[in-house]
Design brief:
The chain is an alpha/beta fold. About 40% of the residues lie in helices and about 15% in strands. Bound molecules: 3-methyl-2-oxobutanoic acid.
Length: about 280
């Protein structure tokens, strides 16, 4: 393709075309069995998806956290199925190896197993997701079973569940003290219902390690210590695109905010000084 006709960005199509072995649910189970940690990051667009996939991240979560990390909302509550599906499609089109997890947003599955199944079908058909994630423990067992029986792998999410922020009284560690038993019961219930994996958010490390040891399905932790079978972070937190106060469980691996800020300022200065575009950028 000539320089003149190259489209803006060539994205996923530019990456290598060598055949790759897609991550499947049984690979995750095998990783747990051999003690190999599972990696998951959120992704909401083609370039982050392709980059994280190239890095060898096993699972890409198109989280409802897009609500407060992409769409500018304060919480994950307002995002809709119609808003999340195009993001899911962008990620699933761009990932060659990683398993893509579509996150069912608040209100799209809690009403009944049928509602949950039909929403999950949209994520698989329209979004190209390979599985879905939903929040809740024992009370969500019928929804998990309905999806699993209908051929949709479900990742459960227990502990602190952001969609229930108001019911839980804010961002608080779950499963401390005597509530540890309830967390264990939720973990057992979602496994029994047919979930292939379970996210545990903001759970004491010893409780999460106990759950991980007891379950045969993989556990993915976020703020749940090092005894989980895998870890997940929201990428804007992990790579420093978001600024401000971070949760204790976030480790920052890059400072993208500074990189972008410096780049934007340099561009602004060049345009103001008429040093961009130079002759080599002009026809
Ligand atoms: O939506 C999301 O990003 C999540 C992670 C915090 C696990 O659910």
């Amino acid at each position: 393709m000539s320089e003149e006709t190259a489209p803006y960005g060539s994205g996923a199509a530019a990456a290598s075309s060598a055949p790759v072995r897609k991550v499947r649910t049984h690979h995750l189970r095998e990783m747990k069995e051999r003690g190999e940690p599972i990696t998951m990051l959120t992704a909401y667009d083609m370039y982050t998806a392709a980059t994280f996939d190239e890095a060898g991240i096993d699972l890409l979560l198109v989280g409802d956290s897009a609500s407060n990390n992409v769409l500018g909302n304060e919480t994950s509550l307002p995002i809709t199925v119609d808003e999340l599906i195009p993001l899911t499609r962008a990620v699933s089109r761009s990932a060659k190896r990683a398993m893509v997890v579509g996150d069912l947003p608040f209100g799209s599955y809690q009403a009944s197993p049928e509602q949950g199944y039909l929403t999950a079908v949209r994520f698989m058909k329209e979004g190209g997701a390979h599985c879905v994630k939903l929040e809740g423990g024992a009370e969500m067992a019928p929804v998990i079973t309905k999806c699993a029986q209908g051929g949709i792998p479900v990742m459960a999410h227990i502990g602190f569940t952001p969609q229930s922020e108001h019911a839980l009284g804010g961002y608080r560690v779950q499963g401390r003290g005597e509530t540890a038993e309830r967390l264990l019961a939720d973990a057992r219930a979602v496994q029994e219902a047919g979930a292939f994996a379970v996210v545990m958010e903001m759970v004491p490390a010893d409780v999460a390690a106990q759950v991980s040891a007891e379950l045969h399905i993989p556990t993915i932790g976020i703020g749940a210590g090092n005894g989980c079978d895998g870890q997940v972070l929201v990428w804007q937190d992990a790579f420093g695109l978001r600024t401000g106060k971070m949760a204790r469980f976030v480790k920052q691996y890059a400072d993208l905010h500074s990189v972008l800020l410096e780049g934007a300022k340099a561009y602004k200065d060049d345009v103001k000084a008429r040093t961009f575009p130079a002759d080599e950028h002009s026809f």
